[in-house]
Protein backbone atom coordinates (compact mmCIF):
# COMPACT_ATOMS: atom_id res chain seq x y z
CA UNK A 1 0.00 0.00 0.00
CA UNK A 2 1.45 3.36 -1.04
CA UNK A 3 2.51 5.56 1.86
CA UNK A 4 1.16 9.10 1.87
CA UNK A 5 3.18 11.97 3.31
CA UNK A 6 2.52 15.58 4.20
CA UNK A 7 5.69 17.68 4.24
CA UNK A 8 5.36 20.93 6.18
CA UNK A 9 7.83 23.49 4.84
CA UNK A 10 8.27 21.72 1.53
CA UNK A 11 10.11 24.61 -0.15
CA UNK A 12 12.91 24.73 2.45
CA UNK A 13 16.27 23.00 2.28
CA UNK A 14 15.05 20.05 4.37
CA UNK A 15 11.55 19.81 2.93
CA UNK A 16 12.73 19.91 -0.66
CA UNK A 17 15.31 17.15 -0.16
CA UNK A 18 12.81 15.03 1.77
CA UNK A 19 10.19 15.39 -0.95
CA UNK A 20 12.64 14.34 -3.64
CA UNK A 21 13.70 11.36 -1.52
CA UNK A 22 10.16 10.19 -0.77
CA UNK A 23 9.06 10.48 -4.39
CA UNK A 24 11.99 8.27 -5.44
CA UNK A 25 10.86 5.72 -2.86
CA UNK A 26 7.34 5.65 -4.29
CA UNK A 27 5.49 7.79 -1.73
CA UNK A 28 2.59 10.07 -2.53
CA UNK A 29 3.76 13.49 -1.35
CA UNK A 30 1.72 16.54 -0.38
CA UNK A 31 3.56 19.71 0.55
CA UNK A 32 2.33 22.65 2.59
CA UNK A 33 4.01 26.04 2.30
CA UNK A 34 3.20 29.74 2.03
CA UNK A 35 3.41 29.41 -1.75
CA UNK A 36 6.43 31.65 -2.30
CA UNK A 37 8.32 28.91 -4.13
CA UNK A 38 6.89 26.24 -6.43
CA UNK A 39 7.07 22.68 -5.12
CA UNK A 40 9.01 20.09 -7.08
CA UNK A 41 7.33 18.13 -9.85
CA UNK A 42 5.32 15.19 -8.59
CA UNK A 43 4.27 16.80 -5.29
CA UNK A 44 0.79 18.07 -4.54
CA UNK A 45 0.98 21.69 -3.40
CA UNK A 46 -1.06 23.05 -0.49
CA UNK A 47 -0.95 26.70 0.55
CA UNK A 48 -1.85 27.85 4.05
CA UNK A 49 -0.64 30.15 6.79
CA UNK A 50 0.63 27.84 9.53
CA UNK A 51 -0.24 30.39 12.21
CA UNK A 52 -3.93 30.21 11.21
CA UNK A 53 -5.42 27.11 12.84
CA UNK A 54 -8.64 27.19 10.86
CA UNK A 55 -6.88 27.61 7.52
CA UNK A 56 -4.49 24.74 8.25
CA UNK A 57 -7.28 22.44 9.42
CA UNK A 58 -9.35 23.19 6.32
CA UNK A 59 -6.35 22.47 4.05
CA UNK A 60 -5.17 19.16 5.53
CA UNK A 61 -7.98 17.41 7.46
CA UNK A 62 -9.21 15.28 4.56
CA UNK A 63 -5.83 14.39 3.04
CA UNK A 64 -5.66 11.01 4.75
CA UNK A 65 -1.89 11.09 5.16
CA UNK A 66 -0.07 8.33 7.03
CA UNK A 67 3.02 10.41 7.86
CA UNK A 68 3.66 14.09 8.50
CA UNK A 69 7.11 15.71 8.50
CA UNK A 70 7.40 19.09 10.22
CA UNK A 71 10.28 21.16 8.82
CA UNK A 72 9.02 24.73 9.30
CA UNK A 73 9.34 27.52 11.84
CA UNK A 74 8.65 31.24 12.00
CA UNK A 75 11.28 33.53 13.52
CA UNK A 76 9.94 36.04 16.05
CA UNK A 77 11.42 38.98 17.94
CA UNK A 78 11.92 37.12 21.24
CA UNK A 79 12.29 33.52 22.31
CA UNK A 80 9.05 33.72 24.28
CA UNK A 81 7.27 34.65 21.05
CA UNK A 82 9.18 31.93 19.19
CA UNK A 83 7.87 29.41 21.71
CA UNK A 84 4.28 30.61 21.41
CA UNK A 85 4.13 30.91 17.62
CA UNK A 86 6.12 27.80 16.74
CA UNK A 87 4.42 25.66 19.34
CA UNK A 88 1.11 26.76 17.82
CA UNK A 89 2.32 25.78 14.35
CA UNK A 90 2.95 22.19 15.45
CA UNK A 91 -0.42 22.00 17.22
CA UNK A 92 -2.28 23.46 14.23
CA UNK A 93 -0.92 20.64 12.06
CA UNK A 94 -1.13 17.69 14.44
CA UNK A 95 -4.57 18.20 15.93
CA UNK A 96 -6.58 17.89 12.69
CA UNK A 97 -4.37 15.07 11.41
CA UNK A 98 -4.64 13.25 14.75
CA UNK A 99 -8.42 13.57 14.82
CA UNK A 100 -8.62 12.00 11.35
CA UNK A 101 -7.49 8.69 12.83
CA UNK A 102 -5.26 7.94 9.84
CA UNK A 103 -1.97 9.43 10.99
CA UNK A 104 0.63 6.79 11.86
CA UNK A 105 3.75 8.86 12.48
CA UNK A 106 4.82 12.48 12.95
CA UNK A 107 8.45 13.59 12.59
CA UNK A 108 9.76 16.93 13.85
CA UNK A 109 13.02 18.49 12.62
CA UNK A 110 14.73 20.78 15.15
CA UNK A 111 18.50 21.21 15.49
CA UNK A 112 21.52 21.71 17.72
CA UNK A 113 20.04 24.76 19.42
CA UNK A 114 18.48 22.02 21.53
CA UNK A 115 21.94 21.84 23.17
CA UNK A 116 23.24 25.37 22.48
CA UNK A 117 20.21 27.43 23.46
CA UNK A 118 18.11 29.88 21.39
CA UNK A 119 19.45 32.66 19.15
CA UNK A 120 18.93 35.40 21.74
CA UNK A 121 21.01 33.48 24.30
CA UNK A 122 23.09 31.46 21.86
CA UNK A 123 25.75 29.45 23.71
CA UNK A 124 25.52 31.98 26.57
CA UNK A 125 24.99 29.45 29.32
CA UNK A 126 26.78 26.24 30.21
CA UNK A 127 26.93 24.18 27.01
CA UNK A 128 27.03 20.36 27.35
CA UNK A 129 30.30 18.59 26.62
CA UNK A 130 30.89 17.56 23.03
CA UNK A 131 30.02 15.44 21.27
CA UNK A 132 26.38 16.29 21.94
CA UNK A 133 24.31 13.25 22.89
CA UNK A 134 20.55 12.89 22.99
CA UNK A 135 20.74 11.76 26.62
CA UNK A 136 22.07 15.19 27.68
CA UNK A 137 18.50 16.50 27.69
CA UNK A 138 17.28 20.09 27.73
CA UNK A 139 19.05 23.30 28.68
CA UNK A 140 17.52 25.74 31.22
CA UNK A 141 15.36 28.55 29.86
CA UNK A 142 12.91 29.09 27.03
CA UNK A 143 13.61 27.34 23.73
CA UNK A 144 11.07 27.01 20.93
CA UNK A 145 12.42 23.57 20.03
CA UNK A 146 11.20 22.38 23.44
CA UNK A 147 7.82 24.01 22.87
CA UNK A 148 7.50 22.19 19.55
CA UNK A 149 8.52 18.89 21.11
CA UNK A 150 5.96 19.28 23.88
CA UNK A 151 3.18 19.81 21.34
CA UNK A 152 4.37 16.74 19.42
CA UNK A 153 4.44 14.54 22.54
CA UNK A 154 1.02 15.74 23.71
CA UNK A 155 -0.65 15.13 20.33
CA UNK A 156 0.94 11.67 20.02
CA UNK A 157 -0.39 10.67 23.44
CA UNK A 158 -3.85 12.03 22.67
CA UNK A 159 -4.26 10.50 19.22
CA UNK A 160 -2.09 7.38 19.38
CA UNK A 161 0.43 7.95 16.59
CA UNK A 162 4.20 7.47 16.92
CA UNK A 163 6.74 10.30 16.73
CA UNK A 164 10.41 11.04 16.09
CA UNK A 165 12.58 14.13 16.61
CA UNK A 166 15.59 14.83 14.40
CA UNK A 167 18.42 17.20 15.37
CA UNK A 168 20.69 18.08 12.44
CA UNK A 169 23.76 20.28 12.56
CA UNK A 170 24.04 22.96 9.84
CA UNK A 171 22.27 21.55 6.77
CA UNK A 172 23.86 21.51 3.31
CA UNK A 173 21.31 21.37 0.51
CA UNK A 174 19.71 22.98 -2.51
CA UNK A 175 16.83 25.38 -1.81
CA UNK A 176 16.91 28.86 -3.39
CA UNK A 177 15.07 31.35 -1.23
CA UNK A 178 15.61 29.36 1.97
CA UNK A 179 16.31 31.55 5.00
CA UNK A 180 19.12 29.42 6.47
CA UNK A 181 21.52 27.99 3.93
CA UNK A 182 25.27 28.05 4.56
CA UNK A 183 26.17 26.09 1.43
CA UNK A 184 24.52 28.54 -0.95
CA UNK A 185 25.80 31.51 1.07
CA UNK A 186 29.40 30.31 0.78
CA UNK A 187 28.92 29.61 -2.93
CA UNK A 188 27.76 33.20 -3.49
CA UNK A 189 30.56 34.59 -1.32
CA UNK A 190 33.24 32.58 -3.16
CA UNK A 191 31.82 33.57 -6.57
CA UNK A 192 31.96 37.24 -5.62
CA UNK A 193 35.50 36.90 -4.28
CA UNK A 194 36.59 35.30 -7.58
CA UNK A 195 34.85 37.88 -9.76
CA UNK A 196 36.11 40.88 -7.78
CA UNK A 197 39.58 39.56 -7.00
CA UNK A 198 38.98 39.76 -3.24
CA UNK A 199 40.41 37.40 -0.62
CA UNK A 200 38.31 34.44 0.51
CA UNK A 201 38.34 35.28 4.22
CA UNK A 202 37.03 32.89 6.85
CA UNK A 203 34.39 34.89 8.75
CA UNK A 204 34.26 32.86 11.92
CA UNK A 205 36.01 32.22 15.23
CA UNK A 206 39.31 30.58 16.10
CA UNK A 207 37.33 27.88 17.94
CA UNK A 208 35.55 26.95 14.70
CA UNK A 209 38.69 27.27 12.57
CA UNK A 210 40.70 24.91 14.76
CA UNK A 211 38.11 22.70 16.42
CA UNK A 212 36.48 19.54 15.15
CA UNK A 213 32.98 19.91 13.71
CA UNK A 214 30.45 18.16 11.48
CA UNK A 215 27.50 19.02 9.22
CA UNK A 216 24.33 17.44 7.82
CA UNK A 217 23.59 16.79 4.15
CA UNK A 218 19.89 17.40 3.47
CA UNK A 219 19.74 14.00 1.75
CA UNK A 220 21.17 12.33 4.85
CA UNK A 221 18.49 13.97 6.97
CA UNK A 222 15.79 12.92 4.49
CA UNK A 223 16.99 9.33 4.64
CA UNK A 224 16.83 9.29 8.46
CA UNK A 225 13.38 10.87 8.47
CA UNK A 226 11.98 8.10 6.29
CA UNK A 227 13.82 5.41 8.25
CA UNK A 228 12.47 6.58 11.61
CA UNK A 229 8.93 6.71 10.28
CA UNK A 230 9.01 3.20 8.84
CA UNK A 231 11.13 1.19 11.31
CA UNK A 232 10.13 0.25 14.84
CA UNK A 233 13.56 1.17 16.24
CA UNK A 234 13.05 4.76 15.07
CA UNK A 235 9.67 5.35 16.63
CA UNK A 236 9.16 7.50 19.73
CA UNK A 237 12.81 8.52 19.80
CA UNK A 238 14.92 11.65 19.34
CA UNK A 239 18.00 11.35 17.13
CA UNK A 240 20.95 13.50 16.22
CA UNK A 241 21.66 13.42 12.50
CA UNK A 242 24.95 14.39 10.83
CA UNK A 243 26.92 13.04 7.88
CA UNK A 244 29.17 10.76 9.93
CA UNK A 245 32.52 12.39 9.16
CA UNK A 246 34.31 15.16 11.08
CA UNK A 247 36.57 17.98 9.89
CA UNK A 248 38.24 21.23 10.86
CA UNK A 249 37.45 24.44 8.98
CA UNK A 250 41.17 25.11 8.62
CA UNK A 251 41.12 22.12 6.25
CA UNK A 252 37.66 22.59 4.72
CA UNK A 253 38.03 26.31 3.92
CA UNK A 254 41.02 25.86 1.54
CA UNK A 255 39.23 22.86 -0.01
CA UNK A 256 36.20 25.03 -0.83
CA UNK A 257 38.49 27.76 -2.18
CA UNK A 258 40.20 25.22 -4.44
CA UNK A 259 36.85 24.23 -5.96
CA UNK A 260 36.22 27.84 -7.00
CA UNK A 261 39.79 28.38 -8.20
CA UNK A 262 40.61 31.00 -5.58
CA UNK A 263 43.07 31.31 -2.72
CA UNK A 264 41.94 30.99 0.88
CA UNK A 265 43.20 33.96 2.88
CA UNK A 266 45.36 33.08 5.91
CA UNK A 267 43.30 33.10 9.11
CA UNK A 268 44.49 35.82 11.50
CA UNK A 269 42.36 34.80 14.46
CA UNK A 270 39.83 37.63 14.11
CA UNK A 271 36.09 37.12 13.67
CA UNK A 272 35.14 39.01 10.49
CA UNK A 273 31.38 38.54 9.98
CA UNK A 274 30.00 38.39 6.47
CA UNK A 275 26.93 40.44 7.35
CA UNK A 276 28.99 43.58 8.00
CA UNK A 277 31.35 43.02 5.06
CA UNK A 278 28.70 42.17 2.46
CA UNK A 279 26.30 45.08 2.91
CA UNK A 280 26.95 46.33 -0.64
CA UNK A 281 27.27 42.90 -2.25
CA UNK A 282 23.85 43.09 -3.90
CA UNK A 283 25.05 45.45 -6.62
CA UNK A 284 28.05 43.27 -7.40
CA UNK A 285 25.85 40.18 -7.58
CA UNK A 286 23.42 41.83 -9.99
CA UNK A 287 26.32 42.68 -12.27
CA UNK A 288 27.64 39.13 -12.02
CA UNK A 289 24.19 37.72 -12.75
CA UNK A 290 23.87 39.88 -15.83
CA UNK A 291 27.34 38.96 -17.09
CA UNK A 292 26.81 35.21 -16.68
CA UNK A 293 23.06 35.12 -17.45
CA UNK A 294 22.22 33.81 -13.98
CA UNK A 295 18.61 33.13 -13.07
CA UNK A 296 18.59 34.91 -9.71
CA UNK A 297 19.95 38.48 -9.56
CA UNK A 298 18.64 39.03 -6.02
CA UNK A 299 21.41 38.03 -3.64
CA UNK A 300 18.92 37.86 -0.78
CA UNK A 301 17.31 34.82 -2.37
CA UNK A 302 20.59 32.89 -2.23
CA UNK A 303 22.76 34.17 0.62
CA UNK A 304 21.94 34.55 4.32
CA UNK A 305 24.97 36.21 5.89
CA UNK A 306 23.65 36.34 9.47
CA UNK A 307 22.97 32.62 9.72
CA UNK A 308 26.36 31.62 8.35
CA UNK A 309 27.99 34.11 10.73
CA UNK A 310 26.11 32.53 13.65
CA UNK A 311 27.31 29.04 12.76
CA UNK A 312 30.92 29.91 11.98
CA UNK A 313 31.25 32.41 14.81
CA UNK A 314 30.52 29.99 17.64
CA UNK A 315 33.07 30.37 20.45
CA UNK A 316 33.19 26.66 21.23
CA UNK A 317 33.55 23.28 19.54
CA UNK A 318 30.27 21.90 18.20
CA UNK A 319 30.31 18.19 17.47
CA UNK A 320 27.54 15.60 17.40
CA UNK A 321 27.38 11.97 18.47
CA UNK A 322 25.51 9.56 16.17
CA UNK A 323 25.81 6.41 18.28
CA UNK A 324 22.13 6.20 19.20
CA UNK A 325 21.00 6.29 15.59
CA UNK A 326 23.63 3.78 14.46
CA UNK A 327 22.84 1.35 17.26
CA UNK A 328 19.17 1.57 16.25
CA UNK A 329 20.04 0.56 12.68
CA UNK A 330 20.45 3.78 10.69
CA UNK A 331 23.89 3.45 9.08
CA UNK A 332 23.84 5.95 6.18
CA UNK A 333 26.90 8.17 5.66
CA UNK A 334 27.85 11.22 3.61
CA UNK A 335 31.22 12.89 2.98
CA UNK A 336 30.81 16.58 3.86
CA UNK A 337 33.23 17.87 1.21
CA UNK A 338 31.32 15.86 -1.38
CA UNK A 339 28.08 17.40 -0.08
CA UNK A 340 29.44 20.89 -0.65
CA UNK A 341 30.76 20.03 -4.12
CA UNK A 342 27.50 18.37 -5.18
CA UNK A 343 25.58 21.45 -4.07
CA UNK A 344 27.95 23.79 -5.92
CA UNK A 345 27.62 21.68 -9.07
CA UNK A 346 23.84 21.82 -8.87
CA UNK A 347 23.89 25.59 -8.36
CA UNK A 348 26.01 25.87 -11.50
CA UNK A 349 23.77 23.55 -13.48
CA UNK A 350 20.72 25.59 -12.44
CA UNK A 351 22.53 28.80 -13.45
CA UNK A 352 22.42 30.23 -9.94
CA UNK A 353 26.19 30.75 -9.63
CA UNK A 354 28.75 31.26 -12.43
CA UNK A 355 30.61 28.33 -13.91
From TrEMBL:
**Where in the numbering of this chain does the PRISE-like Rossmann-fold domain appear?**
58-354
Concerning InterPro entries, the annotation shows:
NAD(P)-bd_dom_sf, PRISE-like_Rossmann-fold
Highest taxon in the source lineage: Bacteria
Q: Which Gene3D superfamilies match?
A: NAD(P)-binding Rossmann-like Domain
- List the SUPFAM superfamilies: NAD(P)-binding Rossmann-fold domains
| Name the record gives this protein | Nucleoside-diphosphate-sugar epimerase
Q: What is the lineage of its organism?
A: Bacteria, Pseudomonadati, Pseudomonadota, Gammaproteobacteria, Lysobacterales
Amino acid sequence: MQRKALVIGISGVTGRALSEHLLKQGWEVHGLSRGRTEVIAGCHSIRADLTDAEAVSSAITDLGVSHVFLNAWSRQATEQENCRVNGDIVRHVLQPLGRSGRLEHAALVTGLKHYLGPFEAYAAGEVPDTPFRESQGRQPGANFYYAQEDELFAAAREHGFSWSVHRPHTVIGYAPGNAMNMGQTLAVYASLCKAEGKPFIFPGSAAQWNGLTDMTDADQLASQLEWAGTHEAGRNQAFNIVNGDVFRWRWMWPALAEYFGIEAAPFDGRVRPLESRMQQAGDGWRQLAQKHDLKQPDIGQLATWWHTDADLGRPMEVLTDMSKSRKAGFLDYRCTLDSFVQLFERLRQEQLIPR
